[in-house]
Amino acid sequence: MSRPHFWDADGKRYIDYIGSWGPMILGHLDAQVLAAVQTALTRGFSFGTPTEAEIEMAEEICKLVPSIEQVRLVSSGTEATMSALRLARGFTGRHRIIKFAGCYHGHADSLLIKAGSGLLSFGQPTSAGVPEAIAQHTTVLEYNNLAQLSETFASIGEEIAAVIVEPIAGNMNLVRGTPEFLRMLRELCTQHGALLIFDEVMSGFRVALGGAQALYGITPDLSCLGKIIGGGMPAAAFGGRRDIMAHLAPLGAVYQAGTLAGNPLAVAAGLATLKRLQAPNFYDQLEARTARLTAGLTQAAHEAGMTFSTDHVGGMFGLYFAAHRPTCLAEVSRSNLDNFKPFFHHMLAAGVYFAPSAYEAGFVSITHDDTVIDATLAAARMTFSALQR
Ligand code: PLP
Fold first, then answer.
1. How far is Cα 246 from Cα 268, in angstroms, rounded to an integer?
2. Could you tell me if the CB of 76 is within 6 A of ligand 1?
C-alpha cells in the first residue's frame, strides 16, 4: 500500500522526492504506521499527561541515539532547537550562539540569521522581524571553515553558550560537514565550556539509524530530532547529557512545556516508524536506492554534456549544477542556479517532484524501487537533453 507517489488536484501523479521535507522515509501511507495511528485514534487524541507510548518512544530514542541519555518530546523541529538553545544558555550562564551560514534550524528568532532553506530561496537569508538585540547574540560562521572556527573560539570562546550545527546540512542543498570540521567543533566546545548541539532534525534516522553522529563517531552534548520521529505527524525531540537535561523544569530553572507535546497520535506514528527502520538491512537498501538515483542522474547529465554532480548519504541526496560537490553555502551559490530552474520545471512536467530550489536536499523513501527510479531517470534523460538545446 505504501508508495512514493502523490496526486495533484487534477489527478496527475508525481514521484515524490520531498517526502514532506524528510519525514516520509517509509513512503506515503505505510500500512504499519497507518494501523498504529488508527489504533491510537480510538483511544483518545490528547491527554496532557504522558502516555505509555510516549515513554516507549523516549526509551527507543535513547536506545538508538546513545548520546541522548534523557529526552523531551516537543511538537516541531523549531521547538526542539529553540528549547535546546535556551537550555544551553541556562546551563552555561552565557548568551552567545554560534551557527553556520546556510544551516537552517527552524524559525526561532535567534536562529533565523543567515539561515538556509526557504529563506535562501527568497534571497533573504535573515528574516524581517528579528530584533537586533536578539540577532547580536548569534555569530554566523562559514560551514567547514576550520580557520575561522578556531579564530572565533580564540577570541570569544568564553562567551559561547553553544554551537548549533547540522552535521550533514540539508538546507543549502546537501553539504556534508567534514570529519575534521566536526571533530574540531567537538574539541573547541569541550575546551571552552560551550555545548555542542547537533541539529539532526533532518539527518536523524535519515542518514543512518543513529544519525550523523553515529556515522562520524562524534558525541554532541545535545541533539535535536524531528521529521522522521513523527512519521509524518507533528513530533520532535531534544535531549542529551543527563546533567544538562536536569536543568529543565520542573527539576531545573529552564522552562519548557507544550500542551500537545508527546501527542498520542504523533507518538504512535513515530514509534511505528522507528520500529520499521530497525528491520535488517533497511539502511543498506535505502542507501542503494539513493545511490541508484544519484548515479543515474549524473550519468544522464554527463551524457547530455552538462556540468553536474551529486552526493548522497543514506536516504538524503544533493544535486548540483557544478563540477564538484560544494563544501559551504558560498560554493552552492556559485553553482549554475540558472540551470536548476528549467531542470525542476521539466521534471515536474514529467511527473517527478524534486524540491523547487537548488538550496534544498532531496529524500528517497524505501518505496522508491528500481521501477520508480528508472522512470525518474528516463524523465531526467529527456530533461537534460532539452536543457542542452
Ligand atoms: N532543523 C533542521 C535541520 C530542519 O531541517 C528543520 C526543518 O526543515 C528544522 C530544524 C525545523 O523543523 P520544523 O519545520 O519541524 O519546525
1. 27
2. yes
